[in-house]
Amino acid sequence: MKDFMPINMSSGNMSEMKADWTKTIQEAIDKAREVGSETVTVTLKTVINLDKMPITTEKDYREATVPKFKWKAESNVSIKTAHEGEFGGEYELTKEDGTYGLRSINGQVSMFDAEEEDEEDLDEDEE
Asked: Where residue 105 falls among pLDDT bands split at 50, 70, 90?
């Protein structure tokens, strides 16, 4: 057929989608270099609605499937930060007056707890 247009990324009917995808890639790389990121993710999402439409020709009447293409090209420039730690094991989860909190498992407070807290505060101040 003379007017047949294949649906693939190489055909001219996808030129606008390819242009948007290319533009998104270029902008994402620029942004990554600007902020010092080493990772860029570019996603192209395509939704194709297959609508039904009556077509009348000189020869016949038929129902045709008429596709509508929608796309969205988007990028994500990653700048990772991480902080790790761990807390737990010495306390039990309790609820008082509708609020959750922690209580020492043994229920006792050592006379050294206050000294340890003071030493930790001094260590933090030195950093």
From this structure: confident
